[in-house]
Design a protein that fits this description.
Layout lengths: L1 H8 L5 H14 L3 H16 L5 H13 L4 H44 L5 H27 L4 H17 L4 H15 L12 H11 L1 H10 L4 H15 L7 H12 L5 H13 L7 H31 L2 H7 L3 H29 L3 H16 L5 H20 L1
């Protein structure tokens, strides 16, 4: 009996297989956080069935509620599901490392050759294709998770609309969505147990002290590496939402406050993050390299990702232990609906910036056609073709 139970409880994959998957996703996963969470659902839940739908939803909810980069936190949580802290650590490192190596190499080329003039052309094509990838991911997540539930559809529409109007992700939307769904679907017989929701609410008050924390970091005459460490730790610890949400915060500190980069260099840094696979937040590695070489890149990346790692593994046991209770399930369903609404809204916001003329409309349409009808073509091949199209078309438009 015990042997049978152990066999049933054994995950259908090894830790090494999960590490291999996360390494591959970090190496060829284009499209930023929105697309990456879609890939994880498609590959790990639908196709390989390594992760249950419930575990995925819990991970997505936790990643949305906690500050830090969305896709990296989800990768860490999915590593945690069956292999604990060891799995979370290895999955997180495997996911982030490939893109870190790429941005450091691009940083070295950028410094050596005085800028990357081809980058705008590549991003012109890739940006349009990425919108198609995100749109398909958002569609699949919506049909899979929202279904015909009217309450979840209402939450989804509100979250999408707020994201489109504000062009940002607001953590209180996720909290409110979870609470409303919980109160409607599984009203509590008693209020939260002691400490039940304090951890999440606490992060809101931490955010109120962000300007003070930044001011303290600016007034101390520390070495550049120490300043990089403090600034990027603040970025990882206080910025909610996907990797894209961190960009305005980075701009304020890197360009305006510390004057580490010029406006042009910062725009190039964001472009590097968008045309490389893996988490968008890895742009911190490129910025760190421009400021203080390889050591700066390492410090910036570690300082940014360490908080999100801790914010994932510390509450994870609670999610694993109590995640099947009706109230928690309802809360997670509401948060998930808001998260997917936000993803859909983000696709529209990004689309307005990337789809600017007939050529980008054509690239988007071809991408959607390939993804919808010719499903055997992998996303990296589509991205590569879009990059080539950008290199050809962009110079002609600017001539």
């Amino acid at each position: 009996m015990g042997a049978t139970d152990a066999k049933a409880a054994r995950p259908p994959y090894s830790l090494w297989q999960m590490v291999q998957y996360m390494t591959k996703l970090g190496t060829i996963g284009f499209g930023g956080p929105v697309a990456l969470v879609g890939y994880m659902h498609r590959d790990l839940v639908e196709e390989r069935k390594w992760i249950s739908e419930a575990d995925y939803k819990e991970g997505l909810t936790l990643a949305q509620l906690m500050p830090g980069p969305l896709a990296a936190q989800l990768a860490i949580y999915l590593g945690y599901v069956h292999y604990g802290i060891r799995g979370a650590t290895l999955a997180g490192v495997a996911f982030v490392l490939p893109s870190f190596i790429m941005v450091v190499a691009l940083g070295a080329a950028y410094v050596s050759y005085g800028g990357l003039t081809w980058m705008q052309a590549v991003f012109y094509g890739v940006g349009a294709a990425v919108i198609g990838i995100i749109a398909i991911s958002a569609y699949k997540l919506t049909t899979k998770s929202i279904g015909k539930d009217k309450l979840l559809w209402a939450i989804y529409i509100v979250a999408a609309a707020v994201t489109i109007v504000t062009e940002s992700e607001i953590v209180w939307i996720f909290l409110a969505a979870g609470l409303i769904t919980w109160l409607v679907k599984a009203p509590p017989k008693q209020w939260f147990p002691k400490g039940g929701g304090a951890a999440v609410v606490g992060f809101g008050t931490l955010g109120d002290h962000l300007p003070t924390a930044c001011a303290i970091g600016a007034t101390h005459d520390w070495s550049v590496l120490a300043q990089i460490g403090v600034f990027f730790a603040e970025a990882g610890a206080f910025v909610f939402g996907s990797g894209l949400a961190i960009v305005p915060f980075l701009y304020g500190g890197v360009v305006n406050e510390h004057h580490w980069l010029t406006e042009r260099q910062f725009v190039d840094a964001v472009a590097v993050a968008m045309i490389t696979p893996g988490p968008v937040v890895i742009t911190v590695g490129f910025i760190g390299y421009l400021v203080a070489g390889f050591a700066g890149a390492v410090v910036a990346a570690l300082a940014t990702f360490l908080p999100c790692y801790l914010f994932t593994i510390i509450p994870a046991p609670y999610f694993r232990k109590h995640g099947k209770k009706p109230g928690i399930v309802a809360f997670v369903d509401g948060c998930t609906a808001a998260a997917i609404g936000t993803i859909t809204g983000a696709a529209i916001v990004l689309g307005k910036r990337s789809i600017t003329d007939i050529a980008t409309v054509v690239i988007l349409a071809v991408t959607l056609l390939f993804l919808w009808k010719v499903k055997k073509i992998p996303e990296p091949a589509i991205v590569a073709l879009a990059a080539i199209a950008g290199l050809v078309v962009y110079p002609l438009l600017k001539a």
